[in-house]
Every structure is written in C-alpha cells, then in structure tokens.
Write a structure and sequence with these properties.
Layout (H helix, E strand, L loop, with lengths): L1 E9 L12 E9 L9 E9 L4 H5 L22 E11 L9 E7 L3 E4 L7 E2 L16 H13 L7 E4 L5 H13 L2 E6 L2 H9 L5 E4 L6 H8 L4 E6 L3 H9 L1 E9 L3 H4 L10 H6 L3 E4 L9 H13 L7 E5 L4 H8 L7 E5 L4
Parallel strand pairs: 8-9, 8-11, 9-10, 11-12, 12-13, 14-15
Antiparallel strand pairs: 1-2, 3-4, 3-6, 3-15, 4-5, 5-7
Helix pairs in contact: 2-3, 2-9, 5-6
Bound molecules: NADP nicotinamide-adenine-dinucleotide phosphate (NAP).
The site of NADP nicotinamide-adenine-dinucleotide phosphate has 30 residues, from helix 2, helix 3 and helix 7.
C-alpha cells in the first residue's frame, strides 16, 4: 500500500538561534511494504521527542557531531532522525513484528524506515502508562535525569542540590528524584509561572526566576548560604560560573547540557578554577547513551512513584508533523513546560 509521508527538513545549516523559517515540510509517496530480503521495518510514528541537542546536529560544524553516533550532522534537505515512540506497521525483520510498539531513533516525519537496529532501539511494554511517557519520563529524558543524578552526582541524603532549567524535561525529574531521595532542592527557571509550578506542584524547596536576577552569584549565595553539594547543570554559561563559586568542598557538578551556549557559539562559562582546585570539586559530563546499563534500575526506581503519583509528569504536547519546527524553536525561548513532544498520530 502507498501513502503520503510528511516530514521536516532544515533548509540550510543553523548556527544561531533557530527560526521556524529555517525548516521546511516535505511530502513524499511512501510504500508501507518492506522490500523482500531486506531486514528492515516500517514504523508509524506516534510521539516524537523534541530535544535541544538536535541544534548541535544542525550546525555547520560542532564538536558534538564527532562525539556520538546518534549526534551526526543533519544534512539540509534530508530526513532528520529523532527519538520517539511508534508502532511497527510492516516488518521484514524477524525480531520486530507488525503492531509492536518500539522506542528509539525514528525520524521527524509520519513514518520511519528502520534499516539498522542500533543500541537505542527497543521494544516497549507500555505497562499501562500512556504511550507518550515512553518518549519522556520512561524514555531517554527520564533515564538522563535518573542516571545523571544517581550515577554521576552520587547524592547523599540531606545534601543541597541546585538544578537549572528545572521546569524542563530533565530538570523537573532531577528535582523530584532528589526530593524523593531526601535532598534539599532549589531550581531555577525562566518565568514566574514555572517557579510557582516547581514549588507548588513538584515539591521543590525553593525556586527562582533567573531572568529577574542581576547577580547570579549573589542569588545562589542567598539560596545556599552554606554552599551547594550538587549542581545538575542543564544550561552552562553564567549559571555554571555562579554555581562553581557557591559549591561546597567535594561538591559535584553533573554537566548534562549547556543550552545557553547552543545558540551562541561565542558564549562560554569562564570558570574560576581556584574554586575547583581548592574545594576539590568534580565536574563530570555524561551522555545518556552511555547509561543504558542502569536502564533496569531506572525503571524500578521510577514506576512505583509514577503509579502512586509521587512523581509528577510534565508533558507539553503539540500535534501534527507541521508543529515540529515551532515546538523545536520554542525550546530555546523557554516556551515548553516539561517534556516537549509532538504527537504525530493517534495509536
Ligand atoms: N547529557 C545527556 O545525555 C542529555 C540528555 C538529554 C538532555 N540533555 C541536555 O539537558 C538540557 C535540558 O534538556 P531537556 O530536554 O530537558 O530540555 P528542556 O529543559 O525541557 O527545555 C529546554 C529549556 O531550557 C531553558 N533554556 C532555553 N534557553 C536557555 C538559555 N539561553 N539559558 C538558560 N535556559 C535556557 C528553557 O527553560 P527556561 O524557561 O527555564 O529558560 C527551556 O524550556 C539541555 O541542555 C540538553 O541538551 C542532555
């Protein structure tokens, strides 16, 4: 059977803040049958994950493009691979059968052809949860928060934790894992609505709007008069500089992402290394793709609080392939509250 497949491409490389006009919707005739003798299968995309790291793939060049397999350069005019959840509609692969739900690298379109089953692709048992959860809280966003907090930061009960982009996909879960574990948690976000949400709905001890602060070092001193044990960094730049100055001896920084630097290649954190040396601070970068070994532990730690409502899920869902450019551009303006997803089709 032949259908029409709508998909999104970039018109050219994007080296600053992305605009909707940088993207184009394309349409192609698409066969829903697999070719005989090929090991491939076809997935109808249901929910696509909208992730900041994609911007580093869209640049003319970025060190990110040489670091990880799934962060390769996106070529203008060509389909864009992206994390998501979908249903197999045709298969020539004996391991993946028609009607099974899968999660992993799909593409920013209505259908994906999976030619190679890489390490990120797996079958999904929905376990009674909404399918969207498997592209967010039970997918790579959740695993990033869990692994970054427990494996990289190695928390102890009672420690003082600071999280940036705290109302986003990863940040909102890091803060909640930290609270459930018994830490004191302060988050920052870019609007008063997000700040209220962190304190009133997600149980953060404190939160502040970083856009209203003129001296971030003094702000963090106000919230952490005795210093920060753990900083979970999603943004980099000035916030990282301010956190380093306020860390306690033997503090840990998880370098999860530097979104403030993705849109401006001249913007860098300039760290006062005297703090790092004299306070024996550890700064550790990590990638979720290197954390698949803790996936089972992550699920065990997440399912029970999800079922009992102790872990709140923030989802921000747009609908239709056409909404992908605005959903993506919105990440860099702070439009999203929680995990940004695009629902491409009903199941
Ligand atoms: N290491 C890994 O494996 C891994 C995996 C997933 C994500 N990440 C990284 O984790 C970070 C968060 O990703 P996410 O998927 O959870 O996105 P997200 O937090 O849901 O969305 C991005 C948020 O970043 C904030 N932001 C945008 N531009 C900013 C700027 N110039 N300065 C400060 N904040 C800004 C906005 O919130 P405000 O309104 O608060 O400004 C926006 O809502 C990103 O840096 C991402 O690259 C890393």
């Amino acid at each position: 059977m032949e259908v029409t497949n709508k998909y999104i491409v970039i018109k050219h490389h994007i080296d600053g803040a992305p605009q909707e006009s940088d993207f184009e919707l394309k349409t192609e005739a698409f066969s829903l049958s697999t070719k005989p003798g090929k090991n491939e299968f076809i997935v109808k995309n249901l929910y696509l994950s909208i992730d900041p790291y994609q911007l580093n793939r869209m640049k003319n060049q970025s060190p990110a493009q040489r670091a990880l397999d799934y962060v390769d350069a996106i070529i203008p005019g060509k389909p864009i691979t992206a994390l998501g959840v979908g249903r197999v509609v045709a298969s020539g692969n004996s391991e993946f059968n028609k009607d099974e739900l899968v999660c992993g690298l799909l593409s920013w379109g209505e259908y994906s052809v999976i030619k190679e089953v890489g390490g990120l692709l797996r079958k999904v048992d929905a376990m009674g949860f909404p399918i969207s959860y498997h592209a967010g809280v039970l997918g790579f966003g959740g695993l990033t928060a869990y692994a970054g907090f427990f494996e990289v930061c190695k928390p102890k009960k009672g420690e003082k934790v600071f999280v940036s982009a705290a109302a986003g996909s990863v940040g909102s879960l890091v803060g909640q894992y930290a609270k459930l574990f018994g830490c004191y948690v302060v988050g920052c976000a870019g609007s008063s609505k997000k700040v209220d949400l962190l304190k009133q709905n997600l149980g953060f001890d404190e939160a502040f709007n970083y856009k209203e602060e003129t001296d971030l070092k003094a702000t963090l001193k106000r919230y952490f008069p005795d210093g920060i044990d753990i900083y979970f960094d999603n943004v980099g730049a000035e916030m990282l500089e301010a956190a380093i100055e306020n860390m306690k001896p033997f503090g840990r920084v998880a370098a999860c992402g530097v979104i403030a630097e993705y849109t401006d290649k001249g913007r860098r954190a300039s760290l006062d290394m005297v703090h790092v040396v004299y306070k024996s601070i550890t700064i550790q970068g990590f990638s979720v793709s290197d954390q698949m070994n803790v996936y089972t532990n992550f699920l065990s730690a997440t399912i029970e609080p999800l079922r009992t409502g102790k872990l709140h899920v923030l989802e921000d869902i747009s609908r239709g392939v056409e909404s992908i450019p605005s959903a993506f551009v919105g990440l860099f303006r702070g439009d999203n509250v929680g995990k940004k997803l695009v629902q491409v089709a009903e199941d």
